[in-house]
Amino acid sequence: MRLNGAGIVIESLKNEGVEFVFGYPGGAVLTLYDEIYKTNFPHILTKHEQGAVHAADGYARATGKVGVCIATSGPGATNLITGIATANIDSIPLICITGQVATPLIGRDSFQEADVCGITAPITKHNYLVRHIKDLPRVLKEAFFIARTGRPGPVVVDIAKDVFAAETEYKYPAEICLRGYTGKYIGDEKKIDRAVDMLRTAERPIIFIGGGVITSETSQLVREMVQKMNIPMTSTLMGLGAADADSAGYLGMAGMHGSYAANMAIMKCDLLLGIGVRFDDRVTGVISEFAPKAKIIHFDIDYAEINKNIAVNLSVVGDLRWSLPLFQEKLCPYNDIIKENIQKWYENVVKIHTARPFKYKNDKNNILAQDAIKKLSDIVTHNTAIVTDVGQHQMWAAQFFKVYGPRNFITSGGLGTMGFGLPAAIGVKLGRPDKNVILLSGDGSIMMNCQELATLADYNINIKIIVIHNHVLGMVTQWQRMFYGERYSQSLLNSKADIVKIAQAMGIKGFRIKVKEELINGLQQLLHEQGPVLLDIIVPAEEDVFPMVPGGKRLDQMVMGEDGL
Amino acid sequence: MKYQIAILAENKPGVLTHVSGLISRRAFNIETINAGYTEDADVTRINIVVDANDETELNKVIHQMAKLIDVIKIVNISELASINRELVMVKVKVTSSAIRADIVNIASIFRAHIVDVGHENVVIELTGEQDKLAALIDMLNCYEILEIARTGPIALSRGIIPVKNM
Questions:
Q1: Within a domain: residue B55?
Q2: Residue whose C-alpha is closest to residue A456's, from A398, A403, A531, A555
Q3: Which label site among A269, A431, B52, B117 has the fewest CB atoms less than 10 Å from its CB?
Q4: Chain A CB contacts of B22 below 8 Å
Q5: How far is CA A384 from CA A62, A442, A527, B24, in A?
Q6: Where are the beta strands (DSSP E) in A125-224?
Q7: A308 touches chain B (CB under 8 A)
Q8: Mean pLDDT, to the nearest integer, of B125-130?
Q9: CATH level 3 topology of A369-550
Q10: A254-286, pLDDT tens digit by residue?
Q11: Which CATH number among 3.40.1190.10, 2.102.10.10, 3.40.50.970, 3.30.450.20 corresponds to the domain A2-169?
Q12: Would an 8 Å CB–CB cutoff place B53 in contact with chain A?
């Protein structure tokens, strides 16, 4: 079939099973948008390219499929950068198709020219500049393969404007030939035997899971291991949902704002099984004192993660879909013995967790963010995906919102991108229309991409938005309060902007609650309204997220806040 | 510690940028870097000398580079029995026939070649291991060196197995 470059892009998207794309048109992609027009290919027009890339990212996180976004050359492409870096650090599969100026104009500082491959090299899994039409089908095939397989990640395909118009005979390649990349990760089975031996002789083991468990769809295997042997389990921020919030032996999130029991268990355990984690500094505390009494086993797909931050005693490198079933199978004969060996430890850890759950103080008049999130969690169904922005509300969501099932907690973990939430929630809802999607944001974060409220209205995307409105940049003020002598430099917002009116002006419903009696009704009203709604909840400014492990401290040196909360 | 790394990569534009960018991003110093065609027309061999604190640090950067899609193979040649060579060209100012004779003499002792002679200069070419190059340059420093160009070291392992099959 003879097609031009634009036709090849659309045909290839269809071949890859892409349901729709997020994007924003412009000069260098006019031919591509002409093809979108002619073929009526499903396209969501966001209000900003950053919205498009976060939406594609949210779609990928919610579905496990590859998210696709399109932007024009120059500023269009550079507006994607934050979103690409956000996806890269959390290993999210994305294809970003960017227009480039026409080949004769490349390198001449032409209008709307930017070196997209140069700029995105450090924040992508791979990138391509397509200068010849004959390369286009192969590049697109490879791009999807690379984004989706192995440790997933974003791939940028930068296509020169004249390539969209050039014609060639189109045949989507059946095979991929990449000498430096197979996308398959089968490791050394003997390492799994050694892991079994280590677990058999352990007295105080703990399972420590991360986003890799979600990415590889191996939550069920991990859950079964915990159930069969009563091994206590904790999670990173990115691993939330892999275990059901209230399942037995699950201690919730560990790390800087992790649970007391999880952090203490890490400090006391004699064996730590890290599964699909990368031992980020937000979860380890001071690195030399992380799990000081433990032997550490690290299951991960990426060789580069082994010994990167934490020196481990044993690494099982390979796809968790390969390693975990084998591990489980080899453990089978020892399940009961292990359960018996560790029973005292298990009971002890669970007792601590029951005695010291995440807590917050009682406030008679004000609505506290923690209380609002907990009450919300109590009234929604398990089939709810919660999307967060970044800051205090994000940590409170991790602590107080009970997540059931993988891909139900959507957050920018590694990069901590404020403004991620709203556009990501759009992608989540479009990818999983069967789920209730709630966005939890703050008055700082929501303003960073508030233009996308208009996208919600234009496409009538049914997302319920809660803005935790404390009139400050909460996490910044918390640090300023604790470490900078209460000098609140540029963190007191006290904005004159009315977020409810902004929502209404953008075309969605909005309302506000201020006092405690309004909370339950307010949440009920939010959930029962048709279509997208924003609920602005006014909360006190001076609330801190506890527990907190200050920078450079051990996990057991966490600050618990007043009343030992 | 300095380590000699051999990287086989797809011969595509931007590969060298990807590799060197990654090394500096992970806070390693590149001492030298060079690249050239190989027995396979589609494959570039990039030879790098990096400065790393120890093998653990080095392995971190090797694993990061191995993740680059266009990198086919990466080997730490320093671990292997290998032959290591660098080429240097030195342009020396010659103000008298006595000096010229001295320099020709030094070149011959080092088994270096005089590759250009002018009324006021000579260019000496020497291939060898880095300490030999250093010794020659040290001797020539007694005269007026006008400029130096060097390739940076390249290395091949001994024995029949090429890097691509390691």
A1: yes
A2: A531
A3: B117
A4: 122
A5: 11, 20, 11, 43
A6: 126-130, 154-160, 167-169, 205-209
A7: yes
A8: 96
A9: Rossmann fold (3.40.50)
A10: 999 999 999 999 999 999 999 999 999 999 999
A11: 3.40.50.970
A12: no
Grade residue A564 by pLDDT with cuts at 50, 70 and 90.
low
A225 is catalytic: no
Question: Reduced to 3 states, what is the DSSP secondary structure of residue A426?
Answer: helix
Same domain for B46 and B74, yes or no, is yes
- B95: domain CATH number is 3.30.70.1150
pLDDT in tens, A63-88: 999 999 999 999 999 999 999 999 99
Instruction: Please answer whether residues B103 and B124 qualify as being in contact, where contact means their C-beta atoms are separated by less than 8 angstroms.
Output: yes
* Of B124, B98, B102, B101, residue with least CA distance to B112: B124
In the residue annotation, A264 being an active-site residue is answered as no
Please indicate, yes or no, whether residues B72 and B119 belong to a single structural domain of this protein: no
Per-residue pLDDT reduced to its tens digit, A19-45: 999 999 999 999 999 999 999 999 999
Residue B89 shares a structural domain with residue B54: no
Phi, psi values for residue A444, rounded to 5°: -80, -55
Question: Residues of B with CB below 8 A from A179's CB?
Answer: 10, 72
Interface ipTM = 0.88
- The residues with which B45 forms a beta bridge, in sequence order, are B8, B36
Give the nearest partner residue to A180 out of B10, B22, B63, using CB atoms: B10
Give residue B102's domain range.
83-154
Within 8 A of A121 by CB-CB distance, chain B residues are 14, 17-18, 21
Can you tell me the mean pLDDT for B114-128? 96
Q: Which of B17, B63, B71 minimises the CB distance to A121?
A: B17
* Mean predicted confidence (pLDDT) in A160-175: 96
pLDDT score of A563: 60
Q: Give the total number of structural domains in chain B.
A: 2
Chain-wide mean pLDDT for chain A? 96
Can you tell me the mean pLDDT for B7-31?
A: 86
From B79, B101, B133, give the residue that closes a domain.
Answer: B79
Whether the bond into A75 is cis, omega within 30 of 0: no
Split at pLDDT 50, 70, 90, the class of B1 is confident
Q: Do B69 and B119 lie in a common domain?
A: no
At A89 the three-state DSSP class reads helix
Would the CB atoms of A303 and B63 count as touching at under 8 Å? Answer: yes
Tokens of B72: 């086919």
Is residue B26 domain-shared with residue B73, that is, in the same domain?
A: yes
A111 labelled catalytic: yes
Look up the pTM and report it: 0.95
Pick from B13, B25, B70: which is nearest to A122 by CB? B25
Does the annotation count A35 as an active-site position?
no
Last residue of a domain, one of B35, B51, B79: B79
From the list A16, A35, A49, A113, the catalytic residue is A49
Q: Does residue A129 belong to the interface with chain B, where contact is any CB pair within 8 Å?
A: yes
User: Is A180 within 8 Å of B72 when comparing Cβ atoms?
Assistant: yes
**pLDDT class of B86 with cuts at 50, 70, 90:** very high
Q: Which tens digits make up the pLDDT trace of A298-346?
A: 999 999 999 999 999 999 999 999 999 999 999 999 999 999 999 999 9
Cross-chain residue pair A117–B14, CB shorter than 8 Å: yes
Q: Are residues B20 and B33 located together in one domain of the fold?
A: yes
Neighbour tally for A267: CB within 10 Å = 18
Here the CATH number for the domain that contains residue B51 is 3.30.70.260
Nearest 5 degrees, angle CA A286-CA A290-CA A293? 140
